[in-house]
Automatic annotation (TrEMBL):
It holds the Pfam family PMI_typeI_cat. It is an enzyme of class 5 (isomerase). It comes from the Bacteria. The keyword Isomerase applies. It comes from Akkermansia muciniphila. PANTHER family: FRUCTOKINASE, TRANSCRIPTIONAL REPRESSOR MPRA. GO terms for biological process: carbohydrate metabolic process. This is Mannose-6-phosphate isomerase YvyI. The active site is at residue 203.
């Protein structure tokens, strides 16, 4: 009996969608060597892989060039992504680069109970530090004795720093940010973020910041307080593996010339280049780039010594 051969797919990337933010900067250009739309705008986010109506990724290269991610998910789900994803109406991950020239707002993403009640979307996320200034801080978790009334008062009186915990992360470290944990990225960070496909954020405190017209950004006090589910401090992820109910990330260190494919060839993976570069089919991806490796994809090859690659699977 003859069996149909398995067709080997090529990895591919998407066009970056750059998002101006009041706290953003130009580090994606100066540190990652990217060509940004201009050199004056403060770009805080680059949405690298996004299946969202407000910011839809399109394929940058190869056989599927120019096609929106959602169309691939709808029409070629099992062929490109593998079996077992019927429960997802959209591609399940959202991948970004974050450039924090200033502090991001103190915020919280809703857990299951709040998201359902308020028609929001649950968001659990992982941060990987591509750069951190020597004095840069990550904020997350509240003091153990803090009550919701204390948190409200601190936000309303500009005293949030007295309650929220902080820590310094070095380049190469990573954190898991569960839904319900109050958190903020401090100034001086460049971060790769992998999260569930959600854009629900409740802003609790914004450092008394105002825009060019003197207006502060909208806060979501009641939604944020209702979403707080975790008071514990931030926890660095040990080792190279972060397993969560919604997705798993694993870090790999590759020697020059070493080939790499996802652990389960029958299902897709997202590769994030944390250091060095990889190549495939005449293409090269460098630090800070995201690659979609389809089911049954060909391998990528490390171009530089000590290349570090993050593989994310669902």
């Amino acid at each position: 009996m003859a069996y149909a051969p398995v067709i080997t797919m090529q990895p591919f990337r998407f066009h970056s969608i750059y998002q101006p933010r009041i706290w953003g900067g130009q580090h994606m250009r100066t540190m990652l060597g990217r060509e940004l739309p201009d050199r004056e705008t403060a770009y805080g986010e680059a949405w690298e892989i996004s299946d969202r109506p407000e910011a839809m990724s399109t394929v940058r290269e190869g056989e599927w060039e120019g096609i929106p991610l959602h169309r691939l998910w709808e029409e070629r789900r099992e062929e490109l992504f593998g079996p077992g994803y019927e429960r997802f109406t959209r591609f399940p991950l959202l991948c970004k680069i974050l450039d924090a020239r200033e502090n991001l707002s103190v915020q919280v993403h809703p857990p299951e109970r709040t998201a359902a009640a308020r028609r929001g979307e649950v968001k659990n996320e992982v941060w990987y530090v591509l750069h951190a200034d020597p004095d840069a801080l990550i904020y997350g978790g509240m003091e153990e004795t803090a009550t919701l009334s204390d948190i409200r008062r601190a936000a309303e009186t500009g005293q949030m720093e007295q309650l929220i915990r902080s820590t310094h992360l070095e380049k190469g470290e990573h954190l898991y940010i569960p839904a319900g944990l109050v958190h903020a990225i401090g100034a001086g960070h460049l971060i790769a973020e992998i999260q569930q496909n959600s854009d629900t954020t409740y802003r609790l405190y914004d450092w008394n910041r105002t825009d060019a017209s003197g207006q502060g950004r909208e806060l979501h006090m009641e939604q944020a307080l209702d979403s707080i589910a975790e008071f514990r401090e931030l926890c660095r992820q040990p080792g190279y593996l972060t397993e969560m109910p919604h997705f798993t990330t694993e870090e790999y260190r590759l020697d020059q010339g070493e080939r790499f494919t996802q652990p389960d060839a029958s299902r897709f993976a997202i590769f994030t280049i944390l250091r060095g570069s990889v190549s495939w089919d005449g293409k090269t991806a460098r630090q800070g780039e995201f690659i979609l490796s389809p089911a049954n994809a060909d391998a990528v090859t490390a171009v530089e010594p000590d290349t570090v690659l993050l593989s994310t699977t669902v």
